[in-house]
């Protein structure tokens, strides 16, 4: 049987680096989101922009927290 | 069928009994083709029988090849005194008048009875072994000889069934000629055996597969010293009656650990586990925390973990502990030709020279796996259950394999095949993303709402 070894989709050694990068990018987008919320008035806000920033921030934070878990040895 | 020559070699040097049987069998001239050879065991042996293996020698002296044969428990009722028959299936049937040589190997556990059953710390351990001087066989045995090998020169007594000779650590029974079928000549040997009787009463091995790159193994041990029970008080300082220097208990402990041979010879203080190469994150702990007395040596072929229980184990003493380690995924997980995944692991207990009374292997497959199918080279009770771990919604399918009476010979590879769609790997990150996004949506909703009391201006 010609069996093929299966490895992780991302090399395991990259997990700590990826965790740091993605969490920091995610936090930057979060900061942008809250700065926008705080500096604009209720009438001048654009919902589309809010949702887009929130979506990008949550994608980075979601993957970032996954890689934090993986890098710290919690293999989900 | 007749047995023309039989050589029985019984190895009593360890805590388990290993028996090598060399049989020359001849199919009687006027009979039909024989496809199986029967081997008989006493009822007391059957309940302690851990494994039976048979090989057949083929070819002449130098080109001798041994082909493994399958051994099955046979349920022929025609045996006296409840003896049980195991049938060795021959690969090619034996024609009338032909002879062949079979080698049968079997392991008996819990077959050495300590006598006296209780010893003090300074005594050494003596055990009884009961067997038959001749092979219990449903066939006529023309010629046979039995060798019993002891661990030391100290043999207190042994039954004489002439001709019986003793040479150093070995007893020889035979040669006996022309024994009738089902002959049984009981013998009793009383000898010194100070090997540690390390018995794992219960072992649960949990294997968690993560397709993100890790196979995590956690092993829970309930260990017991199965030898002669310890009598009287245990003193670490009894052991150093010779050395006047070491009066403090701490130094005494060091003394015990560095020179265990002074006394308490049947006790054991360390265990060696052979783990796969490239292990990482190894830990060794029990209920109250980490146990620091362990050593890990790794090379490219294997890893060796040497662990010391918190106290040396004497007869009848128990200890429980947990070992855990991580393995890299690509060494153990493979994709078969039909697209199914399979994990290839070693079945038995990684501790050397131990008997496991009750072994449970739990293979926790990743969430979303379907149709698990274990492939184990011997009989093992199996069922499925669901377990929950981090970020699980529907739970992980878990294959549970159970086997009693496991010895080192059971450390063979086994596989669990299952279907897995890699898209399920995205379930965990999507859950995290969704959770964070919900938080943002809540923020947006809060900031868009007017919660001020009073009239809006």
From TrEMBL, chain A:
Transmembrane segments: 14-39, 51-75
InterPro entries: TMEM258/Ost5 (IPR007915)
Pfam families the UniProt entry points to: Ost5 (PF05251)
Compartment(s) where it occurs, according to its Swiss-Prot or TrEMBL record: Membrane
Biological-process GO terms, alphabetical: protein N-linked glycosylation
Highest taxon of source: Eukaryota
GO cellular component, one term: oligosaccharyltransferase complex
Keywords of the record: Membrane, Transmembrane, Transmembrane helix
Its membrane topology: Multi-pass membrane protein
Role according to the record: Subunit of the oligosaccharyl transferase (OST) complex that catalyzes the initial transfer of a defined glycan (Glc(3)Man(9)GlcNAc(2) in eukaryotes) from the lipid carrier dolichol-pyrophosphate to an asparagine residue within an Asn-X-Ser/Thr consensus motif in nascent polypeptide chains, the first step in protein N-glycosylation. N-glycosylation occurs cotranslationally and the complex associates with the Sec61 complex at the channel-forming translocon complex that mediates protein translocation across the endoplasmic reticulum (ER). All subunits are required for a maximal enzyme activity.
Annotated PANTHER family: TRANSMEMBRANE PROTEIN 258 (PTHR13636)
Known partners and oligomeric status: Component of the oligosaccharyltransferase (OST) complex.
Similarity field: Belongs to the OST5 family.
Protein name: Dolichyl-diphosphooligosaccharide-protein glycosyltransferase subunit OST5
Organism: Eleusine coracana subsp. coracana
UniProt gene name: ga15126
TrEMBL record, chain B:
Keyword Endoplasmic reticulum included in the entry's annotation: yes
Spans traversing the lipid bilayer: 423-447
UniProt main location, coarse: endoplasmic reticulum
Gene Ontology terms describing biological process: protein N-linked glycosylation via asparagine
InterPro entries (alphabetical): Ribophorin_I (IPR007676)
Subcellular location: Endoplasmic reticulum membrane
Keyword presence, Signal: yes
UniProt keyword list: Endoplasmic reticulum, Membrane, Signal, Transmembrane, Transmembrane helix
Any single Gene Ontology cellular-component annotation: oligosaccharyltransferase complex
Pathway(s) annotated for this protein in UniProt: Protein modification; protein glycosylation
Membrane topology: Single-pass type I membrane protein
Role summary: Subunit of the oligosaccharyl transferase (OST) complex that catalyzes the initial transfer of a defined glycan (Glc(3)Man(9)GlcNAc(2) in eukaryotes) from the lipid carrier dolichol-pyrophosphate to an asparagine residue within an Asn-X-Ser/Thr consensus motif in nascent polypeptide chains, the first step in protein N-glycosylation. N-glycosylation occurs cotranslationally and the complex associates with the Sec61 complex at the channel-forming translocon complex that mediates protein translocation across the endoplasmic reticulum (ER). All subunits are required for a maximal enzyme activity.
Family: Belongs to the OST1 family.
Subunit architecture: Component of the oligosaccharyltransferase (OST) complex.
UniProt protein name: Dolichyl-diphosphooligosaccharide--protein glycosyltransferase subunit 1
């Amino acid at each position: 049987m010609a069996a093929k070894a299966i490895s992780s989709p991302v090399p395991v050694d990259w997990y700590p680096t990826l965790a740091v990068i993605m969490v920091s990018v995610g936090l930057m987008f979060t900061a942008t989101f809250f700065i926008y919320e705080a500096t604009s008035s209720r009438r001048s806000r654009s919902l589309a922009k809010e949702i887009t920033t929130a979506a990008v921030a949550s994608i980075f934070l979601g993957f970032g927290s996954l890689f934090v878990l993986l890098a710290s040895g919690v293999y989900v | 069928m007749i047995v023309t020559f039989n050589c029985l070699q019984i190895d009593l040097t360890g805590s388990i009994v290993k028996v090598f049987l060399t049989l020359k069998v001849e199919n009687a001239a006027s009979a039909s083709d024989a496809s199986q050879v029967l081997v008989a065991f006493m009822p007391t042996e059957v309940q302690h029988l851990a494994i039976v293996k048979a090989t057949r020698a083929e070819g002449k002296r130098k080109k001798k090849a041994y082909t493994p044969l399958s051994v099955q428990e046979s349920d022929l009722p025609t045996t006296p005194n409840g003896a049980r028959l195991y049938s060795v299936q021959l690969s090619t049937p034996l024609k009338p008048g032909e002879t062949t040589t079979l080698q049968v190997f079997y392991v008996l556990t819990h077959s050495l009875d300590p006598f006296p059953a209780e010893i003090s710390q300074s005594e050494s351990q003596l055990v009884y072994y009961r067997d038959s001087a001749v092979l219990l066989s449903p066939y006529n045995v023309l010629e046979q000889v039995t060798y019993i090998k002891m661990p030391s020169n100290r043999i207190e007594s042994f039954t004489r069934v002439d001709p019986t000779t003793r040479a150093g650590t070995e007893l020889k029974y035979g040669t006996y000629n022309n024994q009738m079928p089902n002959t049984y000549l009981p013998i009793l040997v009383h000898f010194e055996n100070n090997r540690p009787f390390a018995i794992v009463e219960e072992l649960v091995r949990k294997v968690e597969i993560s397709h993100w790159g890790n196979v995590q193994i956690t092993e829970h041990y309930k260990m017991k010293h199965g030898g002669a029970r310890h009598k009287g008080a245990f003193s670490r300082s009894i052991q150093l009656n010779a050395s006047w220097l070491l009066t403090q208990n701490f130094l005494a402990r060091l003394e015990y650990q560095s020179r265990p041979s002074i006394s308490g010879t049947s006790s054991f203080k360390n265990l060696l586990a052979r783990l796969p190469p490239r292990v990482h994150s190894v830990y060794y702990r029990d209920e109250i925390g980490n146990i620091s007395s362990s050593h890990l040596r790794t090379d490219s072929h294997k890893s060796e973990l040497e662990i010391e229980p918190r106290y040396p184990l004497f007869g009848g003493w128990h200890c429980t502990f947990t070992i855990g380690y991580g393995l890299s995924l690509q060494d153990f997980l493979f994709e078969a030709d039909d697209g199914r995944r399979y994990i290839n692991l070693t079945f038995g207990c990684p501790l050397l020279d131990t008997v496991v009374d009750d072994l449970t292997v739990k293979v926790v497959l990743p969430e979303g796996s379907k149709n698990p199918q274990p492939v184990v080279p011997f009989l093992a009770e199996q069922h499925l259950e669901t377990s929950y771990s981090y970020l699980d919604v529907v739970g992980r399918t878990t294959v549970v394999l159970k086997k009693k009476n496991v010895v080192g010979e059971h450390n063979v590879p086994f596989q669990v095949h299952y279907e897995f769609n890699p898209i399920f790997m995205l379930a965990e990150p999507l859950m995290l993303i969704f959770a964070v996004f919900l938080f943002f949506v809540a923020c947006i909703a809060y900031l868009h709402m007017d919660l001020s009391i009073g009239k809006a201006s």
